[in-house]
Amino acid sequence: MSIYKETAQLLINNYGLSGRFINMLAEERDMSNLLNILERSLTTYEKLELMLRVEGSDFFAGSSQSTKELRKKIIDCWTDDVREDEFMKRCGSNGKSDRHKTRKLAELNWMRGGAWPRAFMENSGIDQLFSGKKSGTLRYEDYEDVEPYKRLPTLKDYQLHLKDELKKALTELGDDAKCLISLPTGSGKTRIAVEAYTEFLRPRFFAGKYLIWIAQSEELCEQAIVTFQQIWQHMEFTESLRIYRMYGGHRLHEADMCGGVVVCSINKLYQALLNGGNEETRLLIENCGACIIDEAHRAVTMMYNTFYEYSQRIRGEKMFPVCGLTATPGRTDDITKLTRFFVFRLVTPNLPEEYRDRPVHYFRAKGYLARPIHEIIATGAIYTVKYEPGYPDPSLDELEFEMSRGCKELARNADRNKKILERLLAIEQGQVIVYACNVEHARLLAAALVVNGRKAAAITANTPRSKRLVYIERFRNGEIEFLINHSVLTTGFDAPKTNYIVICRPIFSDILYEQIVGRGLRGPEFGGTETCRIIDFTDNLGRFGDQQSYHRFEEFWDNE
C-alpha cells in the first residue's frame, strides 16, 4: 500500500474527514484541472489520496481557513495529555479550554520541516514526508580513499583511439595541452578522459600533484567520483587514490592534502577564489597536474574566467593541461566560444570515410547510440510571448524567462493535459522520462498516471536527494514506468534502458534540448536500447513558436 493511500485511509477512518469536507478541500485547492483530465468520478478515498499525492508536504501547510480546519480536526482527536503538552511547548500557557487549545495549535505558524510540523505528524501517526522534513540527506566525507579492485568492460576501438590522442597531447605538449573531446551523449567521453588523465598523472599523484575535475552540479560531481573509483579499481593499481570533495558543504583542508583528484563544482571553486583565494586553493593550483571541465560548452562564464585568470597568475599564461568534455554532434557553434579563453586541440574519433560528415550515423550503426524516432503532437494550446509591437526579438534568456511564466498557463490547460495523459497511457511498455512544465505539472501528471493504474513518480528540485535516488534506482530496475520531472534529469543521470523521452514544455535552448534527448540515446552496445522515441508536445507560441529547439534537430532524427 502506498504512503498516500495509507494516509488517506487514516484521515478518513481515524480522524473522521467527511466526503463533504474533502470535496471542499478539493474545490478550494483547485483540483478541478486534475479531475477534469481523468474524465471519471473518484471515490472519496481516491480524491483524498490524489490531493495528498499532488501536494505532498504542502497538503497540511498554509494559513487558509480550510487548512486550519483540517489541522484542527486532527488535533481534536489527540489525547488530552498530548494536546496539553504541545500547547505548553508552543504557546507557553495553560489555555482556557480544550477547544481553545485546539484552535491555537491549529493556527500556529507552519514552517515546512520545522519542529511543529514534525511534532504534528508524530502525534497524529502520519508519515514525516508530509511535514516537509528532508528524509536523510546523504553525507559524504571531504575526501575519499579508493581501494584497487574491480573490472570494467573493454574500451571500444574509437574510445581507445581518443584515449591515446589525449595521452599523446599530454606527453608532447605538457602544460600547453588544451584539448576538447566532442562526442555524443552516451558514447563514453567521461570514461575516456578519466582513464587517459589518471594514467598520465598516476606517478605524479604521489608527488603531491592534483587532477582538478570541475562540474556544474553536486549530482555531476558525485557521478564523477563514482567514475574515478571504478576506473582506479579497473586499472588494478596496487596503491590507493585520494579523491577530495569540494562542493556543497565540502571544502579542502590543507592537513588532508597530499595529491590526488579534486572534484569540485564551479560555484564552490569560484567562491574559494574570491578575494584572492585561500591557502588551500593556492596550494591546489600551484600543484595542479591537469584539469578536466565537464560540460565544457558552459565554460565561458564569468566564474570560469575567474578560475582561468587566477590560475594564470599562479602558474603563468599556459597554466596546466586542460581537457573539456562536451556533447555537440554535428555542431561547433558552442565549441568555438571556448577560444576566448584558450586555444585547444579538438579530439574526435577516427571514423571511416563514409561517416566523417555524419559521425552520429557511425555510433548508431555500431549500436553505441540508440536511433531517435521523433514524434510531434500539436496540443492546440495558445500562449503568445508578450512583447510590445515593434520591440526587438528577445534574447534566449528573455525568452526562457517569459516562457517560465507561460508554462504555468500551459500546465493548467485541461485539454492539453488530456492529450498528454492519453499519449502516455498509450505507451504499453517502456521506461519513460517526462519533462513537465513546472513542479505542479510534474505532480499532476504523476498522480493522473497512478490513478490510471500505472507506476509513476514525480521528481523536482524540491525532492530530497535521498528520495530522488530511490526513485531513480526503482526506475532503472523497471519498478517505476514513468519518471516525471521538472528541471532535474538533464545531466548527471544514467538510465540506459530509457526508451521514451516525452517533452511537455517549450524549449528554446539547443544545449538544454540536446541534454534532455541525450538521456535516452544509450545504445545496446552500452547496455541501452535499439531505439528511443522522442515525443514533443507543441503549442501555438505566436511569432516565437518556430524558435523551439527541436526544429534545429530535424537532420538528427532517424524516422525511416
Please write out the topology:
Blueprint: H1 3-13, H2 19-28, H3 32-38, H4 44-55, H5 65-75, H6 80-91, H7 98-106, H8 115-124, E1 143-146, H9 157-173, E2 178-182, H10 189-205, E3 210-215, H11 218-234, E4 241-246, E5 260-265, H12 266-273, H13 279-286, E6 288-293, H14 302-315, E7 322-326, H15 333-336, E8 345-347, H16 359-365, E9 371-382, H17 396-411, H18 414-425, E10 432-435, H19 439-451, E11 456-459, H20 465-476, E12 482-485, E13 500-503, H21 510-518, E14 531-540
Parallel strand pairs: 2-7, 2-8, 3-5, 3-6, 4-5, 6-7, 9-14, 10-12, 10-13, 11-12, 13-14
Antiparallel strand pairs: 1-4
Helix pairs in contact: 1-4, 2-4, 3-18, 4-19, 5-7, 6-7, 9-10, 10-11, 12-14
Mean pLDDT: 83
In DSSP terms (H or I, runs of 4 or more residues), the helix count works out at 21
Gross geometry: globular
**Class from helix and strand fractions:** alpha/beta
Q: Major sheet: size, sense and barrel closure? A: 8 strands, mixed
Q: Give the total of beta strands.
A: 14
The end-to-end distance, rounded to whole angstroms, is: 44 Å
Radius of gyration: 27 Å
Segments where pLDDT lies below 50 for 5+ residues?
Answer: 388-392
Strand order of the largest sheet: 1-4-5-3-6-7-2-8
Strand content: 5-15%
Q: Portion of residues in helices?
A: 40-55%
Multimerization state: single chain
Describe the protein in words.
With 560 residues, the protein is α/β, with parallel strands linked by helices. 42% of the residues lie in helices and 14% in strands. The chain has 21 helices and 14 strands. The protein has helices at 3-13, 19-28, 32-38, 44-55, 65-75, 80-91, 98-106, 115-124, 157-173, 189-205, 218-234, 266-273, 279-286, 302-315, 333-336, 359-365, 396-411, 414-425, 439-451, 465-476, 510-518; strands at 143-146, 178-182, 210-215, 241-246, 260-265, 288-293, 322-326, 345-347, 371-382, 432-435, 456-459, 482-485, 500-503, 531-540. The strands form 2 sheets. The protein has an 8-stranded mixed sheet. Helix 1 (3-13) packs across helix 4, helix 4 (44-55) packs antiparallel against helix 19 (439-451) and helix 10 (189-205) crosses helix 11. The longest helix is centred in the first third of the chain and has 17 residues, at 157-173. It is globular, with a radius of gyration of 27 Å. The two termini are 44 Å apart.
